[in-house]
Design brief:
This protein has 195 residues and is mainly alpha-helical. The protein has 2 domains: 90 residues, Arc Repressor Mutant, subunit A; 68 residues, no CATH class. Strands 1-3-2 form a 3-stranded antiparallel sheet. Helix 3 packs across helix 5 and helix 3 runs antiparallel to helix 6. The longest helix is centred in the first third of the chain and has 18 residues. The radius of gyration is 20 Å and the shape is globular. This is ArsR family transcriptional regulator.
């Protein structure tokens, strides 16, 4: 058992914290750091509406994975954090922020689901995982993504408005990845087709 296991928030230590929530907390912390530069766990908790213990835990996890580092202290016990200068997050520039982190957390959550599905309540052992291949132009691919995003709009406010959730609603990971399939080459690397 590690220090982080011992200091994990109660819902994570018990194994009941979902990967979706972990993903949300870490993404919000990274967004906040990108916006303000440096924060302590207490400051992050105040700005994001989480407990300082939860923020502290996830800040340490982000540091452990190389995304953030301790910022210089200005005295006292406060422990400020900042984005690492050459972290995967900082290096992504204006592209999709935190994409690699998000994909890693999604994959981790999926693997947890597969390994612990039988422990879920009987009415929660069902999933709707599927994949498909479609031949689309870049414009069609963007339209498909927009349709999926629009179909989720009626449910967006439930994250921050618990009273809007119907009885029995629980967090569900919704992961969509639309990307061109590249041909396999003899050297094991894909190479984009020229048109």
């Amino acid at each position: 058992m590690t220090e982080d296991d011992v200091n994990a928030p109660d819902d994570q230590a018990a194994g009941t914290g979902g990967g979706l929530r972990e993903h949300d907390v870490r993404t919000e912390l990274l967004d906040l750091l990108a916006e303000v530069g440096a924060v302590t766990a207490t400051e992050a908790a105040s700005r994001l509406g989480y407990s300082s213990g939860l923020c502290s835990f996830h800040l340490r996890q982000l540091a452990r994975h190389g995304y953030i580092e301790e910022a210089p202290r200005s005295g006292g016990r406060a422990r400020p954090w900042r984005l690492k200068e050459h972290s995967p997050v900082a290096d992504q520039g204006t592209g999709e922020p935190f994409g690699d982190l998000a994909r890693g957390l999604e994959d981790e959550s999926w693997q947890r689901w597969l390994s612990q599905r039988d422990e879920a309540p009987a009415d929660r052992r069902h999933d709707e995982a599927f994949s498909a291949v479609a031949y689309l132009t870049p414009e069609e691919m963007s339209r498909v993504a927009d349709v999926i995003r629009r179909s989720l709009e009626p449910y967006k406010d439930r994250e921050h408005r618990p009273l809007a959730r119907p009885d029995g609603a629980r967090p569900v990971a919704l992961i969509t990845r639309l990307f061109p399939l590249l041909p396999h080459t003899g050297d094991g690397r894909g190479r984009a087709e020229s048109t």
